[in-house]
């Protein structure tokens, strides 16, 4: 059984970190919504440079599509969450299982809501190497990966997993979160700021969820 230690929300470093990331997300969202020139210019330069590489290196493009569409696809990440959800239920952790699933669901809803509200167009190319649906901001791939690995790391900590196990998952998480963000920009279906927003929002949501769960399970005087 995991140990749920007290975490006073008013002074929780987890909550404060979540608030900081949420504030950065809000600033980035505002700049994107206002079409701030320097940011759009940076997005354009990075997208143009990577797209040229993607067109000229079909082997690298195929590898990135495999990683993006299968290994790090949002549904692959949600399948991992579903597997952990079932495992928690079988070990009598019903509330924790629902917390995990609920956080993942909230992330998906926030992601789709922001896509609808912001309505940012994806990059357009005369010679596209991939395609994607819905609006661009934020990146669903980046946000889902950040949420999934963030939740898994939290669960390992709750269950007192060893440093080696946590280090292995942290490494896999960093590679996956950074990797999927790169693939989305490399394949020309997202701007860099879409990916940054996905990372920031996903991490902020996990931190808020962790702080709220700790507060809920903290012993009361």
Automatic annotation (TrEMBL):
Q: Name one GO molecular function term.
A: undecaprenyl-diphosphatase activity
Q: Where are the transmembrane segments?
A: 70-89, 96-114, 134-156, 168-189, 195-215
Q: Which UniProt keywords are listed?
A: Hydrolase, Membrane, Transmembrane, Transmembrane helix
Among Gene3D superfamilies, the record links this protein to: Phosphatidic acid phosphatase type 2/haloperoxidase
InterPro entries on file: PAP2/HPO, PAP2/HPO_sf
Residues covered by the Phosphatidic acid phosphatase type 2/haloperoxidase domain:
96-210
Q: What is its EC number?
A: 3.6.1.27
> What is the designated name of this protein?
Undecaprenyl-diphosphatase
Q: Which organism is it from?
A: Streptomyces candidus
